[in-house]
Design goal:
alpha/beta; Rossmann fold; 3-stranded antiparallel sheet
C-alpha cells in the first residue's frame, strides 16, 4: 500500500530522500474518485520516474457556488487500493486547512485563456486549478507531472504557468482513456442515469465524425454546425459550447486549412456536465 502523507512536512521529508540521490519524481494530482484514466497517468509516470506520488484533494476554490463540491464522489479506501495496484509510492491527502490555512489570500491569475471555453461558464475555475497545482508543485518538488488530455484547456494553461513562472516541472499530457463505446472516462460519469449514460456516447461520435470528414468542411462554422446537429439528435443533450481552436494555445484559427486544430466541447446530460475534445488535423 502506498505511504499516506497528510502534512506538507511529511511530503517534503519523503521526497528529500529521492532528491538527495538525484532520482526523478513523478506526480499525478487528482481529486480522487479514481478511474482508469487517472491510473493511466500513473502507469506512464511509473515507467519514466523513480518515485511516483499522487495527491487526492477535492479543491474547493475551483468550484463555483452552484457546482458539485458537496456531492463530488469520494472513495479514499477504493482509491488507495487502485493506487497500490500500479505501484504508487506515496499519496498526499491534505485537509482544506493544510492547503488554505486561515488568512490565505494568494491566487494565480491565468489570463485570457482561463476566460474562454470552460472558463466562460465557470468563472474562477482555472484560477483555482492553477493555484492548487502550483502549490502542489512547490510542496512535492516533482520533476514531471502528468495530466490527461481530456481537459486540454487545463493542460495548456498549466504548461503556460510553468513556463511563465520558471517552475522546474515538465508537464506531460496523456491521451484520453475511453470506455469501449467511446465515452471519455470521468469521475462525473457516475452521476449519469442509465439513459443519460447511453446518450452521452454521442459526444465521441460527433467528434469522430468531424475528424474523419474534416477536409470536407470549408469553414469552422460548418464543422461546428454539423457536430451540433449530431449531438442534438439526443434529446437529453444540452450544449454549452462546441468550438474549433488552435491546439497550441487555444487561439482562434484564421483558417481551418492550416495549422494544428482541435475541436472542444462541453455538453450537459441532465445535471451532469461532460467535456471532451479531438485533434482534427
Amino acid at each position: 500500500m502506498p505511504k499516506i502523507l497528510k502534512n506538507i512536512s511529511d511530503v517534503r521529508d519523503f521526497t528529500s530522500l529521492y532528491n538527495l540521490v538525484n532520482r526523478r519524481i513523478g506526480f499525478v494530482p487528482t481529486m480522487g474518485a479514481l478511474h482508469e484514466g487517472h491510473l493511466e497517468l500513473g502507469k506512464k509516470a511509473r515507467k519514466e520516474c523513480d518515485c511516483l506520488i499522487y495527491s487526492i484533494f477535492v479543491n474547493p476554490i475551483q468550484f463555483g457556488p452552484k457546482e458539485d463540491l458537496g456531492k463530488y464522489p469520494r472513495d479514499l479506501k477504493g482509491d488507495f487500493e487502485k493506487l497500490d495496484s500500479i505501484g504508487v509510492d506515496a499519496v498526499f491527502v491534505p485537509d482544506d486547512n493544510i492547503m488554505y490555512p486561515e488568512g490565505y489570500s494568494t491566487y494565480i491569475d491565468v489570463g485570457k485563456t482561463g476566460d474562454i471555453l470552460c472558463g466562460k461558464s465557470r468563472p474562477g475555475h482555472f484560477r483555482g486549478v492553477a493555484t492548487v497545482v502550483t502549490k502542489l508543485f512547490n510542496i512535492v518538488g516533482c520533476d514531471q507531472a502528468y495530466f490527461g488530455k481530456k481537459d486540454m484547456q487545463q493542460l495548456i494553461i498549466l504548461k503556460k504557468i510553468v513556463a511563465d513562472l520558471n517552475i522546474p516541472v515538465e508537464i506531460i499530457g496523456v491521451d484520453t482513456v475511453r470506455e469501449t463505446d467511446g465515452l471519455a472516462r470521468s469521475s462525473r460519469n457516475a452521476y449519469l442515469s442509465k439513459n443519460e449514460r447511453a446518450s452521452a456516447t454521442v459526444l465521441y461520435k460527433a467528434l469522430s465524425y468531424i475528424k474523419q470528414n474534416f477536409s470536407d468542411f470549408k469553414t469552422k462554422e460548418e464543422a461546428v454546425q454539423k457536430a451540433t446537429e449530431i449531438i442534438m439528435k439526443e434529446k437529453a443533450a444540452e450544449i454549452e459550447y462546441i468550438e474549433i481552436r488552435n491546439s497550441g494555445d487555444l487561439s482562434q484559427p484564421k483558417s481551418i486549412k492550416n495549422g494544428k486544430l482541435i475541436m472542444l466541447l462541453a455538453v450537459k446530460f441532465g445535471n451532469t456536465r461532460l467535456i471532451d475534445n479531438i485533434t482534427l488535423n
